[in-house]
Amino acid sequence: MTYKSNYTIRLRLGSLLLALVLSITSFNCKRNQEQEPTEETITTSKYPILGLSSADAKEIRTLIGSDKILQASYVASQETADQAITNGIEVPLPKDPGGGYTHEKHKRNYHEMYSAGLSYQITNDKKYAQFVIDMLLQYAAMYPKLPLHPKSKENHPAGKLFWQGLNESVWLVNTIQAYDLIYDTVNDEDRKIIEDQLFRNVVEFVSVDSKDTFNRIHNHGTWAVAGVGMTGYVLDDQDMVDRALYGSNKDKETGFLKQIDMLFSPDGYYSEGPYYQRYAMMPFMVFAQAIQNNQPDLKIFEHRNQLLGKAVTTVLQLTDENGAFLPFNDALKEKNYLTGEMVFASNIAYAYYKDSALLPVILKHQQVSISSAGLQVIKGLENYTDTGYVKNSMLIKDGNGGQDGGLALFRMPNEKDGKLNAIFKFASQGMGHGHFDRLSLFMYNGKQEILQDYGAARFLNVESKVGGRYLPENQTWAKQTIAHNTVTIDEKSQFGANVKKSSTISPKLVFSHLENENVQVVSAIENNGYEGVEMQRTIAMVKDEKSERPPFIVDVYNLRSDKSHQYDLNFMYQGHVMETNFEYVQQNPLKALGTNNGYQHLWKLAEGTSDNTIATLTWLNKNTFYSISSLINSGSKMIFSKLGANDPNFNLRNDPSYMIREKGKSNHTFVNVIEPHGDFDPKLESVKKPHSDIKDIQLIVANKEYTIVQIIFKSSQEYTLMLSNQSHDSNKTHKITIEEKEYQWTGNYNLKLN
Amino acid sequence: MTYKSNYTIRLRLGSLLLALVLSITSFNCKRNQEQEPTEETITTSKYPILGLSSADAKEIRTLIGSDKILQASYVASQETADQAITNGIEVPLPKDPGGGYTHEKHKRNYHEMYSAGLSYQITNDKKYAQFVIDMLLQYAAMYPKLPLHPKSKENHPAGKLFWQGLNESVWLVNTIQAYDLIYDTVNDEDRKIIEDQLFRNVVEFVSVDSKDTFNRIHNHGTWAVAGVGMTGYVLDDQDMVDRALYGSNKDKETGFLKQIDMLFSPDGYYSEGPYYQRYAMMPFMVFAQAIQNNQPDLKIFEHRNQLLGKAVTTVLQLTDENGAFLPFNDALKEKNYLTGEMVFASNIAYAYYKDSALLPVILKHQQVSISSAGLQVIKGLENYTDTGYVKNSMLIKDGNGGQDGGLALFRMPNEKDGKLNAIFKFASQGMGHGHFDRLSLFMYNGKQEILQDYGAARFLNVESKVGGRYLPENQTWAKQTIAHNTVTIDEKSQFGANVKKSSTISPKLVFSHLENENVQVVSAIENNGYEGVEMQRTIAMVKDEKSERPPFIVDVYNLRSDKSHQYDLNFMYQGHVMETNFEYVQQNPLKALGTNNGYQHLWKLAEGTSDNTIATLTWLNKNTFYSISSLINSGSKMIFSKLGANDPNFNLRNDPSYMIREKGKSNHTFVNVIEPHGDFDPKLESVKKPHSDIKDIQLIVANKEYTIVQIIFKSSQEYTLMLSNQSHDSNKTHKITIEEKEYQWTGNYNLKLN
Asked: What does the alpha-carbon distance between residue B114 and residue B171 come to, in Å, rounded to a whole number?
């Protein structure tokens, strides 16, 4: 199919809707005259039992003519089903790898079956049901004879229809729902063939032959148990269901419940990060809904203090102001909360928890799932006035007991641009898709990315870019520590970029205070990323309510070691350099900044030094200026670099970065102030406050116990930030005298303005 | 002032409007009771006479409570005036250069006087009039004693209030309008002081002391004559008016009418290009309106076949789909048709010509000028339904007789992205702000810039960037030929980058056919840019109506010389490289591509060669792929480069380019096909048509008379483009036999699909 037809489809939407409404009306008339027996069958059967009850399907049928969102959501399904019926059925022998013809065709097939199933429920037109039956019979004829997929790979769980087992599970999750939707129309003979030859064989393959994956505490395991468990409900096979819920041995050591317990933190954070959480929420929520419908006594949505509800809320909170998922770990920046998975997940969450805070996101979707949950959403939207999705500062703990560090989201209103958002990451490794980015910081101002996390190096599904898979540079650049706004020591990545090692231990939260409107402070430590170096970073976001100055960030990064090291604190700023308060030497020719661990990908552009006590870089991004002012000494190097070296296939974005390098240091404290400021208005040709407001930064003390920092503004305002590094007692009083001046405060930190 | 107060102002708009409406209402009551004499004075006086009649002011007063656009347009003026009155008057002794305090203050002063003048007309509150009088008296006390500005520069016309004379004229244009608005409230004694001490002295300075500028055919001259002419009307001094209209000697060799005749082409194109046309339209239209009000017999808006109306339409056509002015010559890409100048110009054009095609742009402004013209617009908007601003393919000729080449705008609908827009530039130099960019091509797809014109190297008003003036790199990079998508010969710019030389002669249009929906072709020559080299470029935009393929561009660039040269055809593509059909060698370390004429600013990234007959580069920009397929030979070099070398202050954007280099050639024909294609949808995770559709390009013949090119698509479609290079007769039949195949066609070109 070419994209032209897609557009034609959209243009024809209006007329199709009309045709649809008419066909429903005429169907209703016909049914009343001739099809009473069918109607009876439908109403006395318990099917469908997974996501859409027949009563709800009936109600959707009556509402669809008048509700625009419902209409728009449904029409695409019927379009897909109609087109599929026109094209005819093809169930090819599996042979191609991901992206290849048979791979894509089998994916399209389950999508078509599911669409036809929905179309049958909404129109009651049996041609849709028959299409599903016919296709399932073709699968049933082929499946028992299938060997492992010819393109399966060593060390990667194989499928039969697909090169990898994950796709097989996804196929099952979708196909069993299609079967459920048309269950009532299947005669006994076909049912036996479809269930015995196809579904039981697929379940056998997914849950027995691929037992390791089935019992894995991982999103691949979740897709597997969801498919098997839902098949169990439809086939009325409680053994299947129990194995899905409690693991192969039904000992609760693995299976769905254990996955919920292990893969999420008490705050609803999924250990792989938001990009994969989005993907995983689909099987979690769809299976949970089936459980709720069939075994309500399990109270699955109440499990772990309503964990599944929290997980949906948390992944939505982990988005920027454009709705894109925060791009840490392997993540594509284009992915936002409008994806299909979030439609399903948010609808099911709303249906159960009736949390109207979700409705603004659902309104952005302008789409619901055609399901009982979707119907609940439609009812919830009646008389609802959009108030916008609320995102506040919050701490999100990682680890199934909340013990594995986490994320701090700082969010303060910034009159001009929306909100200043900073993300401080001190979470666990996040399995194979995790990056070596502990204690990293990134920042958005309104909708603009200002200090970026590079995300993943990948062009999803673009064949010419390594088949659309992760690019080699994902490993050599994107995962490495230098690709993140944190400290790289001796030009090596944390844990030597070894996932196994880094997965054994996580950073730790020291303290978090995010409740105050004007001062928010979070501190975390990472003592294992580099042998013999203790690292503690404390991030404060500050708004002086008496000043017009936008909120700003104070960043204190302590490093303590017995040995001498090179400490590189990198900032991947986004924008155009406006000015610096120091001299720098441009490089010509350009050479790479280093030889490996990501450094080989950075062209070194310029290096600066200064006799000043602070180095300030100011850049422009859209209509706002930004400055990083850093405490430096005469040995500090300020290094400008740009991504793109040793990138033989132009796979990397050529993004800039700015680094403060400290060589030959054992203990060192980086102190930076990051300010958004001023305005660039090309329409009025006016520029306001293009210069940083920071006059000086002083480190009063930096030892194991305490860090005290003074920030002096050009307006002569002075901020003193006092941190207690070790004690985590918000009632304890601290007192320290430095050069005859006494500093005294209670609790983990104090910020004093004078 | 800081930006906080700006935002406070916006937030307070609602309540202010209410206050305003109330004050008008209460004023009307009071006026009826007590102020009859004033009312009488106002109605019997002819003032104001420039842009707003007192009858229209009265009507605006009655409409302002109910018309939202009018309200919004006015409120800012009264806010400015109120704030100015609160702050008090300051008329500092001129001392600072552009951007400095006294410079900005004198700019702010005329803006405040004009705002107060409007506020007086709308509210009839005399405090506003008094504010203008008081400030004028202060200027009157200072002006006669002023020397030339201390910061004026050699070889640049000086002002007294400002470092350059241009600002002095702009000051006069604004200030005389303010005076006109409050004219009736000035007593005889003040009037004498203001007119004799201030206005006549400023006019003397602008029109006599600065006679050269006053008589210059240039936008600086336009501001000068507009200020002087309008002052003549208000002071009832016909001598001033006549000098403004007909030049110092009143011989019509210079002055306003001559400027209209010389600076615009018959198509309404202003020779400096759209960025400066926007700026120049302000004095042209504001003065024309004053002429129309005071000397209607001159029929100024009918002059040269309604030239001024055409000029407004033409500059609006010279915008991209975001409304930004096409960024050729010195131009800042941020500037769009929402600027204040375009509000004034479009309102005046609408008031006179009643061309409702302008209304969609005015609706985008959501603002009118508070003037008689603005009132006409408000009336025009009643019952108007926005149909969107229509932009079609068009030829815009340059030169006061249309003889100096021009611009071809190709625009074809592209279902997926909006419109494919290509701009082929073969216009005159455009004076000092022109670039050496003859026969250059740039392209937009919908709102995305795909092949860019770099625009100017400047950060307007950003102090840290050379005071916000043009950067040194504007000369060393942005103006040079290599910065444009055209051929650079022997690494030198056209005319050796000498403005004087290049201003003597222009490229020539050969033929233009832009009327056909599916095939649009324009050809132009430039035989003077490089001594001894004849250059002809022919651009065709083609849509195959039978295919789903988006429109594409065929680009045929002939070079003919007796001597051997290096021909570099550069494309500043915007996006991320996806694939090439040739091998290339990455450079490491990176060195500049050359030593001067702009080459010194390009880092050479990679160089490719190929045994194939075409080289194809494919890149991704947002959700669409683009390919350039180029006819090559075994000696062709494909060079990737990136801007940023020898840029000591990070002044340049680090944009990529792709060059086809032919060395040691005398005659050579570049043939390129540029296609948008496919789709990248991160939400659906789908990618369509990521590869170029071009299989081969063949040059059948290329001689002085004819060029015949064959383009073969992968679908086996073949296009044959036959061009008659010399003859410009659309009725002439051409016949040529190449390798026993006969090609025959009538007219300048033929495109055959087989």
From this structure: 10
Residues paired with residue B561 on neighbouring β-strands, in sequence order: B533
Q: Could you read off the pLDDT of B330-385 as tens digits, one per residue?
A: 999 999 999 999 999 999 999 999 999 999 999 999 999 999 999 999 999 998 99
For B642-663, how does the pLDDT look when each residue is reduced to its tens digit (9 = 90+)? 999 999 999 999 999 999 999 9
Q: What is the pTM of this model?
A: 0.92
Say yes or no for a CB contact (<8 Å) between A462 and B680: yes
- For residues B667 and B745, membership in a common domain is answered with yes
Alpha helices in B295-382 (DSSP H): 303-317, 340-353, 359-365, 372-381
Last residue of a domain, one of A361, A391, A421: A391
Distance CA B516, CA B522 (A): 12
Does A425 lie in the same domain as A386? no
User: Looking at the domain assignment, is residue A285 inside a domain?
Assistant: no
- CA B634, distance to chain mean position in Å, is 42
Confirm whether A289 is domain-assigned.
no
Catalytic-role residue among B103, B149, B433, B513: B433
Same domain, B427 and B471: yes
Exactly one of B139, B270, B275, B276 is catalytic; which is it? B276
pLDDT in tens, A9-28: 333 444 444 344 434 433 34
Mean residue pLDDT across chain A: 93
Domain boundary among A336, A359, A391: A391
Residue B462: closest CA among chain A residues belongs to which residue?
A: A687
Q: What is the CATH number of the domain that holds B10?
A: 1.50.10.100
Q: Which tokens go with B617? A: 């580069």
Determine whether the interchain pair B416/A3 forms a contact, defined as Cβ–Cβ distance below 8 Å: yes
Nearest CA in chain B to A655: B654
Does the distance separating the beta carbons of A687 and B461 come in below 8 Å? yes
Do B542 and B751 contact (CB within 8 A), yes or no?
Answer: yes
Closest approach of A344 to chain B, Cα-based (Å) = 14
The average pLDDT across A693-705 equals 96
User: What does the alpha-carbon distance between residue A277 and residue A268 come to, in Å, rounded to a whole number?
Assistant: 10
Tell me whether residue B734 is one of the annotated catalytic residues.
Answer: no
Cross-chain Cβ contact A548/B339 below 8 Å:
no
Task: Please indicate whether residue A433 is annotated as part of the active site.
Answer: yes
Q: Which residue in A336, A461, A688 has the most chain B C-beta atoms within 10 A of its own C-beta, making it the best mutation to test that interface?
A: A461
Domain containing A353: what range?
294-391
Helix A303-317, helix A256-263: angle, nearest 10: 50
- The CATH number given to whatever domain includes residue B570 is 2.70.98.70
Question: B114 and B164 share a domain?
Answer: yes
How far is the alpha carbon of B682 from chain A, nearest alpha carbon, in Å? 6
Residue B222 and residue B369 in one domain: no
Residue of B nearest to A334 (CA): B682
In contact, A139 and A91? CB cutoff 8 Å = yes
Q: Are residues A386 and A445 in the same domain?
A: no
The answer to whether residue A274 sits within a structural domain is no
Q: Which residues of A touch B339 (CB under 8 A)?
A: 683
pLDDT for the residue A98: 80
The answer to whether A224 touches A210, Cβ cutoff 8 Å, is: yes
B384 and B439 fall within a common domain: no
8 Å CB contact of B586 and A648: yes
| Same domain flag for A385 and A453 | no
pLDDT band at B44 (very low <50, low <70, confident <90, very high): low
Task: Spell out which residues of chain A touch residue B469, defining contact as CB-CB under 8 Å.
Answer: none
- For CA atoms A81, A82, A83, A89, give the dihedral sign: positive
Give the distance from residue A683's alpha carbon to the nearest chain B alpha carbon, in angstroms: 5
Catalytic residue among A149, A433, A435, A734: A433
Report pLDDT for B631: 98
Domains contained in chain B, number: 3
Sheet holding A718-724, edge to edge: A694-702, A706-713, A718-724, A749-753
Q: Return the pLDDT at B416.
A: 85
**What's the average model confidence in pLDDT over B664-669?**
98
